Amino acid sequence: MSEIVSINKKGIREDIMALENAVINHAGSFIGDSEVCPLKHSFSDGMYVREIFIPAGTILVGKIHKHAHPNFLMKGEVEVITESNKREHLVAPLSMISPSGTKRVVRAITDTVWVTVHENKKNTTNLKNLEEEIISPDYVSYQKFIDGNAGTGRRMLSFVKTLFKKLLK
């Protein structure tokens, strides 16, 4: 079950970044894997699966993902705010696709287990290398990544059109 409520879009990105900076500078905060929010990493041919346990009452600010990817809320209930002008109340079990560029603020209402699945083209188990492939450290880097890959969709469309023309002759 998912309830979507619109929120004021103006300044959402800035508000999310300000919250992240406030959290980082707060005593007792942490970044990444911790005893509070342990991560489980699993690998399969071409895939990286990341599972996080988020205790009730925890506020978490996610990272900016370069690519769309599947998410699975396996257990729990959360409130989520994203830049896409949505505040969502999510209840497990739930699956969804995160668009590229998504950064979330998550408040765990109950103990929560959240799983994300990412492409792992190089089949690496090196987490630092994987993060460089799937995460942008900031929105400026993300925009550079998007701009550098802007022609990919057009090239694919051109290839498909050419292929269909050849097949229809």
Descriptors for this entry?
alpha+beta, Jelly Rolls, 5-stranded antiparallel beta sheet
Structure description:
Helices cover 29% and strands 37% of the residues. It has 169 residues and is of the alpha+beta class. Strand 2 (39-44) and strand 3 (47-54) form a beta hairpin.
What is shown here, in short?
The protein has 169 residues and is α+β, with helices and mostly antiparallel strands. It has one domain: Jelly Rolls.
Tally of helical runs = 4
**Can you identify the CATH superfamily?**
Jelly Rolls
Oligomer designation? single chain
The number of E-state strands comes to 12
How many strands, which pairing sense, and closed or not: the largest β-sheet? Answer: 5 strands, antiparallel
Terminus-to-terminus distance: 49 Å
- The figure for the number of domains is 1
Radius of gyration: 18 Å
Q: Would you list the SSEs in sequence order as H and E?
A: EHEEEEEEEEEEHEHH
Tell me the strand percentage band: 35-45%
Q: Categorize the overall geometry.
A: globular
